[in-house]
Amino acid sequence: MAMPSIHFLANPARFQRFSARILPWLGALTALLWASGLYMALLVAPPDYQQGETVRIMFVHVPAAWWSMAAYALLAGLGAALLVWRHPLAALMARAVAPVGAAYALVCLVSGSFWGRPMWGTWWVWDARLTSMLLLFFLYLGHIALSRAFDDSERGDRAAAVLALVGVVNLPVIKFSVDWWNTLHQPASVMKLDGPAIHPSILTPLLVMAAAYLALLVFLVLLRTETEIGRRRLETAALTGR
Amino acid sequence: MSRFMALVGRDLRLAWRRPGDAAVVLAFFVLAASLFPLGVGPALETLARIAPGVLWVAALFAAMLSLDRLFADDFADGTLEQLALAPLPLELTALAKCLAHWIVTGLPLAVLSPALGLLFGLDAASIATLTASLLLGAPSLSLLGGLGAALTLGARRGGALLSLLVLPLAVPVLIFGVGAVEALKGGDGVLAHFALLGAFLAGTLAITPWAMAAALRQAVE
């Protein structure tokens, strides 16, 4: 077997046993990471010498941006797994990922807007980074709407998978928009080849918050996938009349 | 190739015999664009400034309006299943239908745009650039729209959903299309914007036929 890991969880019952075992631990870890991350970000981290206390918005804003983009990459990967291997769980998981990714994108947009008001003097600028992030949010909405637009939910799954794969071209545009175009939005300062350009007192809370967002993403996706499995069972039961 | 052209010819003949369908799209384009002078006021310098964006957005909406019938009729009467069984690859079938769609809507929209440009007080050079950018950008819209139409085939509330899917993907066409006219006004070279429009068209030409064929196969399965 070439890829045992992706086929291991293809069986929904096996997935449910797996997720039932790790969900409580993951939930506790998520709560712990959020508590410590928010404590460090809001109380421990020093205020910025230029931005003052508003720099704390970054700890909410930046991880949401990172993981909403990563969640879209995951969505595209799940779409490929569904179309190529007809992986039965990929469709259910894609349905679980999309609303969480959309919520993260929205958190990123709204918190960025709150940050832009005191820093740039405006709620919104139509520059490349903000616009491409807004497009990512719309791509998520399109995915959610398309996957639910058919009476046959499997048809919706596969149509949404094609859309996710086409929409993935937007990801590099978001990532590199701040380098390609000179805009109000600051260029990347953590993900750089020569190391992050951020002091450890800021970087550590940021990374803890990033871990917290990731843990929440995984927790919600596993939980929602389980719910989706249950919903499909009910659908089948209703169809077969048992 | 002859099969490809035969399919394009068939779609053109169908459109020719129902000229109302294409005319409604063009009428929408003119109407939507002519609402803006009523909305923002008739000052020509304001209108000339917003004209490229207004005409491009109106063309984008007009194209969206025409797209939901692209595969729907063939899907409803079973022709699409026959096309899927035909020796012509489904990728080329989809491409042929998009080509026909461009000839029936994209091309007339671009041809009509100079007249609207005059109404908005654009100068000759801007009108020429705008028309050229619409000519180069509209095929991308037909291809992206074809993908949206294929994906939403058989969906509930298809029309609004189609716009939600296609408009985010079509944003680069809008940006570079309007950017070409703005660059001309600003005295910069317009070539970069046309190059980007062409690159976008090349990219969509390479990607969307496969995605359309995948979506159509799901629909007729």
From TrEMBL, chain B:
- Give the protein name, as stated in the record: Heme exporter protein B
* UniProt GO BP: cytochrome c biosynthetic process; cytochrome complex assembly
- Transport among keywords: yes
Q: Which residues form a coiled coil?
A: none
A GO molecular function term, named singly, is:
heme transmembrane transporter activity
Record-stated family: Belongs to the CcmB/CycW/HelB family.
Q: Which InterPro entries match?
A: Cyt_c_biogenesis_CcmB, Cyt_c_CcmB_bac
Keywords in alphabetical order: Cell inner membrane, Cell membrane, Cytochrome c-type biogenesis, Membrane, Transmembrane, Transmembrane helix, Transport
Q: Where in the cell is it found?
A: Cell inner membrane
Q: What are the TM regions of this chain, as residue ranges?
A: 21-40, 46-67, 99-121, 127-153, 160-181, 193-216
Described function:
Required for the export of heme to the periplasm for the biogenesis of c-type cytochromes.
Q: Which GO terms describe its cellular component?
A: plasma membrane
Instruction: Report how it sits in the membrane.
Output: Multi-pass membrane protein
- State the superkingdom: Bacteria
